[in-house]
UniProtKB/TrEMBL annotation:
Keywords: Copper, Electron transport, Membrane, Metal-binding, Translocase, Transmembrane, Transmembrane helix, Transport. It is found in: Membrane. GO terms for molecular function: copper ion binding; cytochrome-c oxidase activity. This is cytochrome-c oxidase. The lineage of its organism: Bacteria, Bacillati, Actinomycetota, Actinomycetes, Pseudonocardiales. It catalyses: 4 Fe(II)-[cytochrome c] + O2 + 8 H(+)(in) = 4 Fe(III)-[cytochrome c] + 2 H2O + 4 H(+)(out). It is an enzyme of class 7 (translocase). It comes from Amycolatopsis methanolica 239.
Length: 299
């Protein structure tokens, strides 16, 4: 019977088609930042510890059921052996869970400190301004454009704003809301933070940092119910190799001969000419049509 159960378990594992990395993730999604991998490691070891505890508890339950059940030969007044005054056992049942909680707290606090750590001199700084119902991204650490203005990207009802960031660089995000409470969330970052109108007065830390590990396009969302068109308040993160990001910022500061104005986000990405990664429009999400007259009668 044991061999059949082991074979069934092996077949079930192989039939899933999961790689070793996927198995060790225990359902944790793949992230794109160094910080998300730190959180994945905490999750993996927490699940392994929980499974070990679970196996021990299940084993003790089955052992008790198998070897300490009432026998047919027992008399009508017989009771199983009692342990309510067993001091060593009671100490064990109190001390061991306390040690487990302390260990879990230590590794959780350590990982949280690593994820929230901020370097004093990040490579890139982005000011994120949320407003009903879109986003503005400013680059205060970049050179000013040809008009002496800060390089910025502002979304509209017809255009999804693209937040262009470099791969392998330390990035600081400074968050602020122009009206109500929003929330800056990129699922692939495995991180989100509420965006307050006046974070200092609301006792909130308005900044965080991360390092993106790979290039790509990732959808970003508002994760705080902020009004009528909250569901359409999306943006796109476009992670470019560091050299292409530097070129993008340079293009944003230059005048476009066709318009006589500094290049927009779309114009700068198009000029980079690096394939799908430099598509001038968002590829992971699309604008939400806010024309309420388009609603058709139902029923």
């Amino acid at each position: 019977m044991g061999k059949v159960a082991a074979l069934a378990g092996l077949v079930a594992l192989l039939a899933t088609g999961c790689s070793g990395d996927e198995v060790l993730r225990f359902g944790w999604p793949v992230g794109v930042t160094k910080e998300s991998e730190d959180m994945r490691v905490l999750w993996t070891w927490s699940v392994i510890a929980a499974l070990v505890v679970g196996v021990i508890v299940w084993g003790l339950i089955f052992w008790s059921v198998a070897f300490h059940r009432k026998k047919k030969t027992d008399g009508p007044g017989d009771l199983p052996r009692q342990f309510q005054y067993n001091v060593p056992l009671e100490l064990f049942c109190v001390v061991l869970p306390l040690v487990m909680v302390c260990v879990l707290f230590f590794f959780t606090a350590t990982t949280e400190s690593k994820v929230l750590a901020e370097e004093p001199d990040p490579d890139v700084t982005v000011d994120v301004i949320a407003f009903q119902w879109n986003w503005e991204f400013d680059y205060p650490s970049a050179p000013k454009d040809a008009n002496g203005q800060v390089v910025k990207t502002v979304g509209s009802s017809s255009e999804i704003p693209i937040l262009v960031l470099p791969v392998g660089k330390r990035i600081q995000y400074n968050l602020r809301s122009a009206d109500v409470i929003h929330s800056f969330w990129v699922p692939e970052f495995h991180f989100k933070r509420d965006v307050f109108p006046d974070p200092e007065k609301n006792n909130q830390d308005p900044s965080f940092q991360n390092t993106i590990d790979r290039a790509g396009a990732f959808v970003g969302r508002c994760a705080e119910l902020c009004g009528t068109y909250h569901s359409g308040m999306n943006f796109e993160v476009r992670a470019l190799p560091a050299d292409q990001f530097d070129r993008y910022i340079q293009l944003r500061t230059q005048i476009n001969p066709a318009t006589g104005q500094p290049n927009t986000t779309a114009e700068a990405l198009a000029a980079l000419n690096c394939g799908e990664l430099c598509a001038p429009q968002a590829t992971t999400t699309k604008p939400f049509n806010t024309d309420r007259t388009l609603r058709t009668q139902s029923g």
